[in-house]
Amino acid sequence: MHTDASRPQLFRTVTSLRAFLLPWRRNGKRIGFVPTMGALHEGHLSLVRASKAENDCTVVSIYVNPTQFAPSEDFARYPRNLAGDLELLSKEGVEAVFAPDDTEMYPPGFNTWVEVRGVSEPLEGQCRPGHFRGVATVVVKLFNIVQPDVTYFGAKDYQQSLVVRQLIRDLNLPIELRVLPTVREPDGLAMSSRNSYLSPQARQKATVIWKSLKLAQELVEAGEKSPREVIRRMEEVILSAEGAMIDYVALVDPETLAPVEVILGPTLAAVAVRLEGTRLIDNMMLCPKG
Ligand code: AMP
Predict the structure, then answer these.
(1) Number of the ligand 1 atom closest to the C-alpha atom of 156
(2) Structure pTM?
(3) Which sign, positive or negative, has the C-alpha torsion 8, 13, 16, 17?
(4) Local structure of 36: helix, strand or coil
């Protein structure tokens, strides 16, 4: 149990957060930063705990970034629960929460965008044009606002972590990136704020995603070398759930996200599935034996 809980300080403006962080930085304290869109769950909290363990001051941002949603997507109905989030974060002993509004982040006249090429283009980039431009832009803004020593991202959004790694390198940002494992429900479903959209029936069906990834792992460990065959078997599992729609099932190089021709080394299996209109993504690193 966490007994030293104290409410994190809540900042709504860039100026007030910077004023809070200045003495920490001046005193040589290590600042850890966890960017989120809120509706926090154990996946987010695993990142927060890592930051708490490794830094003097942990900043969590809670911001549903409008520029990473297409007009057709779920920006308006994305779950928001600041009071509940603050409750969870106070149990973790987080020092600061940054929850700006849209005019603080995108004031009138805002006109600069960060575009990462390459790793942002396949998979989610194909299905959600403009998504990673919004992500990269808000992440760079948040990094510049917080100026953390270390930042924490989840492997659940594997492609996003590659985009962030690329922009840290390319823009010479003095920030260490830590990518932590996906936290799952007992039945394997990756925790996600979007799981709350699922009806009990769809929630049950959503287990096919994890089952397809486990099957892929088993096939590859048993020596299967053909991505086509693994993908075919994964699709079979996913489509066994009535009404499931596949955006992609892909076996890709974990660095470039290019499709693999033959499974010879570590290969990322990445899946995007829609169930009753809710879009779920997941992935797993597949490692052939030996
Ligand atoms: P989000 O609030 O969905 O933008 O996620 C904020 C951060 O939490 C991102 O770095 C995500 O990859 C990470 N995250 C989301 N779900 C999980 C999960 N189930 N396990 C680990 N990290 C996660």
Answers:
(1) 12
(2) 0.97
(3) positive
(4) strand
